[in-house]
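Researcher: Re-running this chain for the archive, since the previous output was lost when a drive failed. Same request as before.
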Amino acid sequence: MNTPLRNDTFIRALRRQPTPHTPIWIMRQAGRYLPEYNATRARAGSFLDLCKSPDYATEVTLQPLDRFALDAAILFSDILTIPDAMGLGLYFAEGEGPRFEHPLRDEQSILALKAPDPYATLRYVTDAVSQIRKALDGRVPLIGFSGSPFTLACYMIEGQGGTEFERVKTMLYSRPDLLHRVLEVNAVAVTAYLNAQIESGAQAVMLFDTWGGALAEAAYREFSLAYLQRIVAGLVRVHDGESVPVIVFTKGGGVWLEHIAAIGCDAVGLDWTVDIGSARARIGDRVALQGNLDPSVLFSPPEVIRREAARVLSSFGGGSGHVFNLGHGISRFTPPEHVAVLVDAVHEFSRAGR
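Model: Regenerated structure tokens:
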């Protein structure tokens, strides 16, 4: 597990140390835009079967690295593994995304909620982390991840994604005690889950607060940020003699960057609505920044992709502390050859700027 990293630019950037180029990885980089991923998923039988097989998870995690000169791998899994392990009955309806058979709709089910043991019901994830780390053999670092307590709660209470959060927000304002109960259990679960990933070989971890931006500021700070801070404080930050950086990403959280940077994380992820130069001026003396190209740019011709990549790099400016990424996950309709253009452009332009 102690194989030295041959490419440590991602870890160094998160530590705000000098790097020979700006590292790049892409949220959802192992996904449906890749024909080889679709072939593996077809062999697995379903998305959940793919996630729950360490062999398949390892295979698809490595696929984008074999195509592109990416600077990090990210564990192939799903943010909803935790509520699935809690017994909520995760399933995927064709064309409709994730759903739960047993959403949290009453006080009794909420009070009965318990954090799962990551080495029991989520053993397939920790086994995948160990297997992927071994397969990487020091090629690039491995990122582990989890959904945030609030984002998980949205799915657990609504029973599905893509909603207006009526049930969650009704509970937030009318029965905040019940929502806090869900969030407290989720925070315990996420902390244990990420620590298990770190113990199994993850060299950095990321918290995806996908739905935190749907909240009003006071609600965000009470029902999302406070729990993110609790998790960050509870994470193993040094493993096998190496520091383990933590990235926090709240989609739609641009107005709260100062608050996010203050919770103890090493890096803040930015969506595409934030100018990275402005974000750096606000918080870049405290944390590294990750982002933040609009994913839709990848539908454009190569010369536009190169221009927009250069724009993000120029906006960040010189010095260390930037991990290039998209401002959200890559679209399934993205041409793979356009990803190659982006990765090569980021490396080319950032080397020239050093």
